[in-house]
């Protein structure tokens, strides 16, 4: 469960910085406050809250496994000046020793284990302050 308290400077502060999910698939529920945005055709688009819908988001592993056919879409959360927001996310991940490799040639990404991927993401965030993600694993 994610909680986003009201923010006095919503134009200055992200609820969640732009990122892609490092999992295989994310199933997300956002409440009626809204604030989730994703990149579509190079522009930020707001995902309208729908109480009857779950959002299914393709993660980095899905992108790698599909040899780049399916894209792990960049998304972010905007803050709200007045109201608190909640969302619930379920991250579908394989075990750490799972090897991620597409058998489609030419292989866009080199093969890596899920643990290797998570460690690399953490290391990049620690050193550079932001996630590099899949581009690190390009062939
Ligand atoms: O709160 C949201 O709507 C999105 C959460 C999210 O992107 C994440 O937890 O990775
Ligand atoms: Fe996310």
Mean pLDDT: 97
Low-confidence segments: none
Q: Tally the structural domains.
A: 1
Q: Tell me the structural class.
A: alpha+beta
* CATH 2nd-level architecture: Sandwich
**CATH superfamily name?**
B-lactam Antibiotic, Isopenicillin N Synthase, Chain
Task: Look up the CATH topology.
Answer: Jelly Rolls
The helix/strand order is EEEEEEHEEEEH
Strand order of the largest sheet: 1-8-3-6
CATH class: Mainly Beta
User: In percent terms, what proportion of residues is strand?
Assistant: 25-35%
Global outline: globular
Q: Count all strands and give the number.
A: 10
Describe the structure.
This protein is α+β, with helices and mostly antiparallel strands and about 140 residues long. It has one domain (about 1-135): B-lactam Antibiotic, Isopenicillin N Synthase, Chain (Jelly Rolls, Sandwich). The chain is about 15% helix and about 30% strand. Strands 1-8-3-6 form a 4-stranded antiparallel β-sheet. It starts with a strand and ends in an 11-residue tail after the last helix. Fe (ii) ion binds next to loops. Fe (ii) ion binds near residues 19, 21 and 75. This is Fe2OG dioxygenase domain-containing protein.
């Amino acid at each position: 469960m994610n909680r986003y308290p009201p923010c006095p400077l919503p134009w200055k502060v992200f609820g969640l910085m732009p990122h892609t999910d490092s999992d295989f698939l994310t199933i997300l529920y956002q409440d009626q406050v809204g604030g989730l945005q994703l990149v579509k055709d190079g522009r930020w688009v707001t995902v309208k809250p729908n109480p009857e819908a779950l959002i299914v988001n393709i993660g980095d592993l899905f992108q790698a496994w599909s040899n780049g056919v399916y894209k792990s879409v960049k998304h972010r959360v905007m803050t709200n000046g007045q109201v608190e927001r909640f969302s619930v996310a379920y991250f579908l991940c394989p075990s750490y020793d799972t090897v991620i490799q597409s058998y489609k040639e030419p292989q866009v990404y080199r093969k890596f284990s899920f643990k290797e991927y998570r460690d690399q993401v953490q290391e990049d965030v620690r050193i550079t302050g932001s996630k590099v993600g899949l581009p690190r694993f390009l062939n």
